[in-house]
Each structure stands twice: as C-alpha cells, then as structure tokens.
Amino acid sequence: MSAFSQLLRFVAVGGFSALIDYGSYQGLLALGLWVHAAKALGFVAGTTTAYFLNRKFTFQTTQGGAGRIGGFVLLYGVTFFVNVGVNALFLAVLPESFLKITLAWVIAQGTATAINFVMLRMVIFKQR
C-alpha cells in the first residue's frame, strides 16, 4: 500500500481516535477532574483506539507480537509526554479565551500525530 493511502487511512483513524480522546477529555473536565489528569486519560483512551484500528485498517497487519506492541507502547509513551507537555505549554502561553483549552488540545494533538505517523510507518508497522 502506498504511503499516501496509508496517510489517508491514518488521518481517518486519527480523526476517530481524536474524537474519543477529546470526548473523554471534555467529559472528565466536566466531572471536575484536574486538567492534566483529564488530558492524560483522554490520550490513553484515544491511543488505545488508534493502536487497534491502525494495526488492522491502516497498516493492515494482524500480527501484534511482543516487539511490535512494545515498540508501540514506547512510541506512545514518548508522544504521551510530548502531547501532555505541549498541551500544558499552550495552556500557559495562550491568552484567555473560550477556545483556549481546545486550541491547546489541537496543537498538542497535531504535534503528536505527526510524530506517530512517521514512526508507525517507518518502524512499528514497517512491512517485513
């Protein structure tokens, strides 16, 4: 499958996973959870969804394997901190606005998504 086809599928899966992430984040905020904990839990929910859908739909592999799962966990562990850190940074630097939380989330999500696509395609789900 071409890189472009994979990118289109990755974007579709990412969009759905982002809805899971953002919906969880907003729901947890509405319940009064600390903003950074809500962000972290939303990220985990979206990431779990993304792994299973990308493995099957985007990169079309049914094999998990300890190495592949371990690589995915390591990659998403790193991008977890990138995502939460970028979100925290932009919450601190953006001016007060009703869109502040959403803008910080979008910037953090975009940064993590770019890293994830490259690493998933080139390392984790590389055709062997």
UniProtKB/TrEMBL annotation:
Locations listed in the record: Membrane
Topological type in the membrane: Multi-pass membrane protein
Keyword Membrane belongs to the record: yes
InterPro entries (alphabetical): GtrA_CellWall_Glycosyl, GtrA_DPMS_TM
Residue ranges of domain GtrA/DPMS transmembrane in the record: 9-125
PANTHER family attached to this UniProt entry: ARABINOGALACTAN BIOSYNTHESIS RECRUITING PROTEIN RV3789, PROPHAGE BACTOPRENOL-LINKED GLUCOSE TRANSLOCASE HOMOLOG
Name this polypeptide is given: GtrA family protein
Organism: Allokutzneria oryzae
